[in-house]
Amino acid sequence: QVQLAESGGGSVQSGGSLRLSCAASTATYSDCMAWFRRAPGKEREGVATIDRDDRSSYADSVKGRFTISQDNAKNTLYLQMNNLEPEDTAMYYCASGPMYGTCSFSSWYKNWGQGTQVTVSS
Question: 88-91 contacts: CB < 8 A, separation 24 or more?
Fold first, then answer.
């Protein structure tokens, strides 16, 4: 079982930036990796995915502002978040799962981190 640990959350003002990191206990280069978030009172939603070939996909709400990346040598997943908006306030989770074909938000993510809180004030 892969253990995932997020870090990098915090409080920023609207328009600010944060970089989230997710350290994996073992190599995950063959997996789908993703960031999800859950805002208070809302369902969990997918933010970004990346596969073993560094192909990425994004939720429409974050396209052009967020960038997902991975450093396989460090077993670490990143999420660079720019031009943050109050609507981005949420607990952010990283997840990993086996890759079957392509990676998407509906892929089977069997490993989850504990989350890191991001709060954006206007």
Answer: 88/37, 88/62, 88/118, 88/120, 89/39, 89/118, 89/119, 89/120, 90/37, 90/38, 90/39, 90/40, 90/42, 90/117, 90/118, 91/37, 91/38, 91/39, 91/115, 91/116, 91/117, 91/118
